[in-house]
Amino acid sequence: AAMADAATEVPSDYVMIKRKKTIFFLYLEAEDTVHDLRARINHVTKVPTTDVKFFIDKDGEVPIDENKMLKDQKIVCDDTLYMVYKKEGTDEWEAIDLDGTGGEPKPVAE
Q: Cα–Cα distance between 48 and 39 in angstroms, integer?
C-alpha cells in the first residue's frame, strides 16, 4: 500500500482546463505561456487562439496575464484553469459555465 501512496503524491505534468461539461488535460512545460496553452487547445478544439481566454478562478475574476509565463503566475502542474470562448460574431466573452447551462442562473422551483 505504501507504494500506491507514493505514486499519488507525484505531481503530473498536466494542467486541467474546464469549460462547460468538458475537461481538458494539457501537458505543461516550465516555460509555457498563455499562447502555448491556446495553441494546444486550438489543436484539439479548432477554436481560433484569439477566441480563447483562461481564468485562474471559476468566478472569472482573475484572468491569466497574457504577457507572463505560467510559472511566473504560480500556475503549476495539477492546477485547474477555466476557459471561455468569445461569443461568435461579437467582441463579448461567454460566462464561465461549468454545468452547461450557459452561465445563466438556474430557475428556482416555486
A: 9
**What digits encode the pLDDT tens for the residues 30-39?**
788 889 999 9
Alpha helices in 1-106 (DSSP H): 2-9, 34-45
| pTM of the model as a whole | 0.77
Distances (CA, A) of 77 to 16, 17, 42, 87, 101: 8, 11, 20, 29, 29
pLDDT in tens, 10-22: 556 899 999 999 9
Q: Give the three cell numbers for residue 30.
A: 516550465
Please give the single-letter amino acid code of residue 1. Answer: A
Q: Which grid coordinates are listed for 104?
A: 445563466
Contacts of 68 (CB under 8 A, 6+ apart): 33
> Rounded to an integer, what distance in angstroms lies between the CA atom of residue 9 and that of residue 103?
34
Region of 95 on the Ramachandran plot (φ > 0 left; ψ -120 to 50 alpha; else beta): beta
